[in-house]
Amino acid sequence: MSARTLRLTRRGWALAWASAVILVLAVLLTRREGLFIASFLAIVVVLCALVASRQRVPLHVGRRVPSDAHCGDRVDIVCEIQAAGSSSAVTGWTDAVPRSFGSTPHGVMPPQRLARGGRTAIRYAVVPSVRGWYDVGPFQVTVSDPLGACESSRPVGETSRMLVLPRVSPLAPSDLLASAGEGRRRDRTRPTAPRADELIARDYRPGDPLRRVHWRATARHGQLMVRQEEPQADPEALLLLDVAPGQKRIDALVDMAASLAVHVAGMGYRVTFAESDSSWVTAQPSDIRDVLTALAVWPGGALDAEREVALRIEQRFSDSIPIFVLTTDADRLAALNAIAVRAAPAIAFVATGSGLDQDAVPAPWIATGLADRVDVSASWERLHRSVAHVR
User: Fold this and answer.
1) Other Cβ atoms closer than 10 A to 85
2) Which of 64, 74, 75, 352 is least enclosed by beta carbons within 10 angstroms?
3) Parallel, antiparallel, or unpaired: how do β-strands 75-83 and 59-64 relate?
4) How far is CA 84 from the centre of its chain?
5) How many CA atoms lie within 13 A of 12 on its CB side?
6) How is domain 59-165 classified at the CATH fold level?
């Protein structure tokens, strides 16, 4: 929590300078009355400082902050203030916010609304620009002495915690994933028992179409059997980030990953984000928050164990799935080919800061460049156009 601060106002500095000038003139002109006046003014400044520093602040402050927000979004913060006593000495306020939120909000406290038991609310807006966890606050009030010569700032209330999620840019509709994913849903075709055909057969019911009659089960059971609807599951998509910590374009790639996660989840895909070689986070299409939270606090990391990751993909997913790799080095794609052969399609975004040489992209990767954070939507469109051109 911030420490108290004490400072002179313009009036206080004027009194202090007047005391010093009068003191010098009194010494030079040997005028005793000047010494009394200078001493009086100095004593007034000291007393004002003591009064300002010891003023009680009978205020209770509560803050309403959203639990999370996206980079670049306007965030409205409300500070609710209740006076437990006379607070006429309170003249102003500030609320401490991180630098990435913009300038520090401040203002003048309305004293007429802060009589004993009075309530007021202060609203301000910030625009966070960097992802991660942040503390907002503490709320600070400025207390002045009756003469207005000194001011003291002191914290009131507690800090509030807020998560800033990556920026999510809208991505244009594309048939790239639909064609690779064979529609919005896939059948679970891997059998769980040696005689799985019996597990999907049931008694015939009036109204069942004849095309669903299971003739082998009918012969075995001696009564008409039909095929049960094959179990289905949401299609899967995987996000892999291959960025060393400290890379200046890491935020552009994280924003791209967040935009992809929201986009493919909206298409009905279950999204998995590999935080590291061994820690993976999965979110359902209806709630992508877990993946966005993991991206918000992701510190960076390279895919060092490529073959282990490829093996885990093979074990975790029964079919080939869309895999998105986001990296800062196009040469890494060749090293990640063991992952690409298990993808359908294998898509890569390379944050080079400029255009990407397609001749340097090894098959079966489909890749495009990513310049910066504002290039996310355009990068997706370039990828879509390149695939459409090949087709």
Assistant:
1) 12
2) 74
3) antiparallel
4) 37
5) 21
6) Immunoglobulin-like (2.60.40)
CA atoms of 13 and 194, how far apart (whole Å): 91
Tokens of 269: 């895909």
**pLDDT exceeds 90 at position 247:** no
Residues 252/372, Cβ–Cβ less than 8 Å = yes
59-165 and 176-184+234-390: same fold? no
CATH, domain range 176-184+234-390: 3.40.50.410
DSSP-derived letter for residue 73 is -
The per-residue b/e assignment along 90-114, b for 16 or more CB within 10 angstroms, e otherwise, is bbebbbbbbeebeeebeeebeeeeb
Mean pLDDT of the region 129-133:
95
Per-residue model confidence (pLDDT) at position 197: 42
Q: In one letter, which amino acid is 59?
A: L
Strand pairing class (160-165; 132-136): antiparallel
Strand ranges of the sheet holding 280-283, from the earlier edge strand across to the other edge: 280-283, 270-274, 236-242, 321-327, 343-350, 365-369
Domains of the chain by residue range: 5-54, 59-165, 176-184+234-390, 190-229
Q: Give which of 144, 147, 153 is closest to 44, Cα–Cα.
A: 147
Is the pTM higher than 0.85?
Answer: no
How far apart (Å, rounded) are the C-alpha atoms in residues 92 and 49? 17
The vertex-153 CA angle with 107 and 68, nearest 5°, equals 60
E strand or H helix that includes residue 270: strand 270-274
Average pLDDT, the chain: 84
Are 77 and 127 contacting, i.e. CB atoms less than 8 angstroms apart? no
- Using CA atoms, how far residue 248 sits from 245, 294, 300, 352, 356, in Å, is 9, 19, 11, 11, 18
**37-41: long-range contacts, CB 8 A cutoff, minimum separation 24:** 41/15, 41/16
In whole angstroms, what is the distance from residue 332 CA to residue 302 CA?
10
Burial class (CB in 10 A: 0-12, 13-18, 19+), 336: buried
